[in-house]
Sequence to fold (179 residues):
Amino acid sequence: MVDQRGLTVGTVARQARLRPSAIRYYESAGLLPAPVRVSGWRRYDATVLGRLAVIELAKRAGFTLAEIRTLLRGFSPRMSPSKRWQVLARKKLPEVEALIARACTMKRLLEEGLNCGCLRLEDCTLLVPGSALACGLSTESASLASGDRAVIAEGHRAHGSGPAAPKRGVGTPGVLRGG
Fold:
């Protein structure tokens, strides 16, 4: 028999520190089982709070909703939660490592750009193919440096470079004109 006093969506949301719409969304996304309905109102049992804690932990770890769905119901019921987590974490870690590497590359490029004093874009070592590699940056950094010329050029135009930065269209034929 269903307890008429089961937890309402508002009660669950307050206890889980989520919005009621998030609870309903997780239900529609297949992360939460459909609750019992009493006179049309959702009524959850207390186990939903543990499941929501797992969902929030997995989100903080970077898992997508599809990966969380797999964590919760994509394995044999005989497989322990820790084994499920390990399987998914082994697949997720390379993605996280790549994200960290990309963020480090972005940081290095930004820091090098802070030291830029170029008067002309043609002279900027951040833009010369191969120079980024000479500065100890990864191949990805060099690719970013050469592939994001327009963004860096816009930064040079907006902020100037060094004490005698040329004005737009003056002293740098074909580079800073137009726009």
Notes: The radius of gyration is 27 Å. Residues 104-179 form one domain.
